[in-house]
Amino acid sequence: EAQVTQNPRYLITVTGKKLTVTCSQNMNHEYMSWYRQDPGLGLRQIYYSMNVEVTDKGDVPEGYKVSRKEKRNFPLILESPSPNQTSLYFCASSLVQGDQPQHFGDGTRLSIL
Amino acid sequence: DAKTTQPPSMDCAEGRAANLPCNHSTISGNEYVYWYRQIHSQGPQYIIHGLKNNETNEMASLIITEDRKSSTLILPHATLRDTAVYYCIVRVGPIYNQGGKLIFGQGTELSVKP
Fold it and tell me: Is the pLDDT of residue B74 over 80?
């Protein structure tokens, strides 16, 4: 089944403790992206990647890192999480060419205390 | 990308057709209309998209007016599981444009009632 898989689905942690949210897709998509969703602010793009080893900042990249060493994986790294990064995070993937839609994971709810 | 306007909320009786409108009067010739929905904090789910012709798939139908300034998403037989926020998004097709970012507006909160 074609899907975007995020792990963990839920995480409660403390300020400053490094964490990684994994994202994996099995559709051979070149493009992958991370969003965060906050009440009243909608979904905002954090980082995106057009292909392996190609990443770029979205609208709200501060405090986050990403890597794209393999086509299927696009982990989101919080080196020193802070409470303002408490949010619902979504990973998405798509083909680059054409008009094909983006497919989203089920989300990761992070709480930083 | 063109701005979209949707009603904030709508109700629909279970089993009836749900017709969700979207205005996109500034749409450009190369911009598609995409519809997604989000069921309570789950990941946005792609529904359907189109450029200028009407489209139908197993989930819904998309009707785009001839001048392309508005569109309607039709769920032919709404069920309780269709209760969600529905987003109409207008953007060019290729992802390499603007970092592939999807701009989710406020959407329409559809409540399907028994």
Answer: yes
